[in-house]
Write a structure and sequence with these properties.
The complex is a heterodimer. Chain A is of the alpha+beta class. Chain A has three domains: 295 residues, 3-Layer(bba) Sandwich (FAD/NAD(P)-binding domain), CATH 3.50.50.60; 98 residues, Flavocytochrome C3, Chain A, domain 1 (Alpha-Beta Complex), CATH 3.90.700.10; 91 residues, Fumarate reductase/succinate dehydrogenase flavoprotein-like, C-terminal domain (Methane Monooxygenase Hydroxylase, Chain G, domain 1, Up-down Bundle), CATH 1.20.58.100. In chain A, strands 1, 2, 5, 6, 7, 8, 15 and 16 form an eight-stranded mixed beta sheet that branches. In chain A, strands 14-9-17-18 form a four-stranded antiparallel beta sheet, covered by helices on one side. Chain A has a four-stranded antiparallel beta sheet with strand order 10-13-12-11. In chain A, helix 1 links the parallel strand 1 and strand 2. In chain A, helix 12 runs parallel beside helix 15 and helix 14 runs antiparallel to helix 15. The radius of gyration of chain A is 23 Å and the shape is globular. The termini of chain A are far apart. Chain B has two domains: 90 residues, Alpha-Beta Plaits, CATH 3.30.70; 31 residues, no CATH class. Chain B contains five helices and four strands. The longest helix of chain B has 9 residues. The chains are: A alpha+beta, B alpha+beta. Chains A and B meet through strand 3, helix 3, strand 4, helix 8 and helix 9 of A and helix 1, helix 2, helix 4 and helix 5 of B. Chain A: One of its GO terms (molecular function) is L-aspartate oxidase activity.
């Protein structure tokens, strides 16, 4: 273990390393299950693993309770009563939008599990749901701060050891390639830590490329990179171009509210065809060609206005604090990239317990693909919330069961660290590729612009992918850090990797399906491409249709076939 | 971005240092948190709702507020009621009703999910707060 990010020859221009070899981890823990992340999926995974008898450590990059896309927002929940007609309608509503890539077996079990978990939120966590005139709780919405505060408490009461401000940097594997723990960095203590574990759940969120969309800057694709280094694949990475409407210069996204909006050119004339749902591409094109799009929520009547204030209170913070009445005054809007946070791509799931291709490694929440329940259409809001609590539950139980099968052997395995890009560069060249800030900016230039990622076209995708491949080659050779800088370097590397999988899949899908719209292939739903795409690799990328290896096929699907 | 830590209000509980998801704050030599890495602030407003003494203010801008901006003037923000306004709305703090009790979010997302009730009719259900709407508290600093 002489070559690590905190030592070795590559820290010349980086922050001085606080540790010298031999490395001492503080803390150096053992647990049955390590959960990486601190949002809804991570907290449900930790709780359910603990309830299954496992000792659990939860390590979050930020603070478990405020971290991630949910904690900062209000969200609907795909919470549907267990009546056959309601469930059938709920499933059918997204089928075509999602490009027929969702799976009924998974939709059914997510609806069942969500029904159960929301009940637990009410009964165990005593979440203060609103009530109707008859005193019945309305359980189809959650306010992020309240939800996540209560989930943190539940995690702690379950005996889980929580490490805040402790970004995990890399996975550790045993001789067989099974994931056996992870190492990271405690940024407020300025020292590395390690957890040896029987299994690891990655619940690290998606990747929004540091776009400053509300709550998303902790979501930089870290889990994808770590999973890929262990040998896991991604699925649905072409469904990664979610953009949310926000007042210009602000972070606050809440696209559902813009259904009450009228959009305007800078001169105040109505922008025809623009809208929050189907008309968002009109907004993108106008922002590209004219630079400005104005908006006014003038379709909202008094009743809607009051209800909006109560749905997501921080939606109005920018307006109130800037002195704008959004219902009567026009304000400029922008589209903020939400990448895979509200896209549906992520780590490929290969079993009902949210396992991945790698033994001992599980994925949940936005870190995992959500195609299983919403295909290629945005998983934002209610579906993602339902998926997070369901997949978190299954991953927590699955990981704890896996750890139990290892028995005594668990903590006596020789560990090999897997982190490469941004952590253990292959060369010593510095310069541009050695500065994580420049790497982030270079990646953002390829993944944020509307004419590259949102309004997709083959030649532009190819050029952008070539640039990202160049960025990757250079950073793989020369990007490293020391201490806190290592965290930043890994984020930059994860963003570059995510962008490459995203465009590799986007080029492979030569049609328009779900949120993936190709200007050069505008025809919708090519029957020959009605299957998910698996993408993977680090230095060399690959992509194949899932039909070649249909491990998602379940008993239910097989019976139907 | 976070712009104001009120030194007169702060009680040194360090909660903001703990809860900021992007680790923006650091403890100063006198124990009061300082904004050490403003460029990392993601403008999520989380620190405001956790602060028990309404000592923090996050300007609603994803870049730093310019010199002389009212978003950086503590006295002005206090006078207009902006300090602590979001915490009041969320309903955190002694004696307050959780804002989630008034949530009507499901009405806005219903049509997007195939759940019952596809058309938002936000006042069709009772349970909305009658007298104390949180709106007026969110005064503009202008």
């Amino acid at each position: 273990m002489s070559s690590t990010a905190q030592s070795g020859p590559n820290t010349k221009h980086a922050t001085p390393a606080p540790q010298t070899a031999p490395l001492s981890y503080e803390p150096d823990l053992t647990a049955d299950v390590l959960v990486v992340g601190g949002g809804p999926a991570a907290t449900w995974a930790a709780v359910k693993a603990a309830e299954n008898g496992a000792s659990v450590v939860l390590a979050d990059k930020g603070y478990c309770g405020s971290s991630g896309a949910t904690a900062a927002a209000g969200t609907g929940v795909w919470y549907v009563p267990p009546h056959p007609e309601d469930r059938a309608a709920a499933k059918a509503s997204r089928e075509a939008l999602g490009g027929h890539l969702a799976n009924h077996h998974w939709m059914d079990r997510v609806l069942d599990q969500t029904w159960h978990n929301v009940h637990e939120l009410a009964e165990v966590s005593r979440y203060p749901f609103p009530v109707d005139a008859e005193g019945r709780q309305l359980r189809r919405g959650l306010q992020g701060p309240e939800y996540m505060r209560r989930m943190r408490l539940r995690v702690q009461r379950a005996g889980v050891r929580v490490l805040d401000h402790s970004p995990v940097l890399e996975l550790l594997v045993d001789e067989d390639g099974s994931v056996a723990g992870a190492a990271g960095y405690r940024r407020q203590e300025d020292r590395p830590f390690r957890v040896r574990s029987g299994a690891v759940v990655l619940a690290t969120g998606g990747c929004a490329f540091l776009s400053r969309a509300l709550g998303c800057n902790v979501n930089t694709g870290d889990g994808y990179l770590m999973a890929a280094e262990a040998g896991a694949a991604m699925s649905g990475m072409e469904f990664s171009n979610a953009y949310a409407i926000a007042p210009k210069f602000t972070s606050v996204t809440k696209t559902a509210y813009y259904r009450y909006a009228t959009f305007y050119h800078a001169d105040g004339s109505v922008l025809e065809g623009a809208g929050s749902a189907k008309g968002r591409s009109v907004i993108a094109r106008t922002l590209l060609s004219e630079g400005t799009v104005l908006c006014r929520l003038d379709q909202a009547d008094e009743a809607a206005r009051r209800a909006m204030r109560l749905g997501q209170a921080n939606f109005f913070l920018p307006f109130d604090r800037l002195g704008i009445d959004p219902f009567t005054q026009m304000f400029p809007v922008t589209l903020l990239a939400e990448g895979t946070v509200r896209g549906t791509g992520g780590i490929r799931i290969t079993g009902d317990d949210c396992r991945t291709e790698v033994p001992g490694l599980y994925a949940a929440g936005d870190a995992a693909t959500r195609e299983l329940i919403c295909g290629g259409f945005t998983g934002g809001g209610s579906h993602n919330a339902a998926w997070a609590m369901s997949s978190g539950t299954w991953a927590g139980r699955g990981a704890s069961s896996f750890a139990r099968t290892l028995g005594e052997y668990t903590h006596h395995r020789a560990l090999t660290p897997l982190g490469r890009a941004g952590l253990r560069p292959s060369g010593t060249t510095r310069g541009q590729a050695g500065d994580h800030r420049l790497v982030v900016e270079a990646v953002q230039r390829e993944v944020l612009p509307y004419d590259k990622n949102y309004l997709r076209e083959g030649a532009r995708l190819t050029t952008a992918l070539e640039s990202l491949n160049d960025i990757w080659r250079e950073l793989r050779h020369g990007l490293a850090g020391g201490g806190e800088t290592t965290v930043r370097a890994r984020q930059a590397a994860a963003m570059a990797a995510t962008g490459r999988w995203m465009y590799t899949a986007a080029l492979a899908r030569t049609e328009t399906r779900g949120m993936h719209k190709r200007a050069d292939f505008p025809a919708l739903d090519d029957p020959g491409q009605r299957r998910r795409l698996i993408t993977g690799g680090l230095d060399e990328l690959w992509t194949v249709p899932e039909s070649a290896a249909p491990v998602h096929t379940t008993v239910a699907e097989a019976a139907a076939a | 971005m976070i712009e104001v830590v009120s030194r007169s209000r702060c009680v040194g509980c360090d909660l903001c240092i703990r809860v900021c998801p992007t680790d923006v704050f650091e403890r100063d030599t006198d124990g009061i948190p300082v904004i050490a890495r403003q460029e990392d602030c993601q403008t999520c407003f989380s620190c405001e709702i956790y602060c028990p003494v309404d000592a923090l203010y996050v300007a609603p801008l994803t870049g730093p507020a310019p010199d002389g901006s009212p978003h950086r003037e503590e006295e002005h923000l206090a006078a207009t009621g902006a300090l602590g306004a979001y915490r009041r709305t969320v309903g955190w703090g002694g004696g307050r009703t959780p804002g989630s009790r008034y949530d009507r979010n499901h009405l806005f997302t219903a049509g997007m999910t195939g759940q019952p009730g596809t058309r938002p009719n936000p006042l069709s259900g009772p349970g909305l707060p009658q007298a104390e709407s949180p709106g007026p508290d969110l005064a503009s600093p202008h």
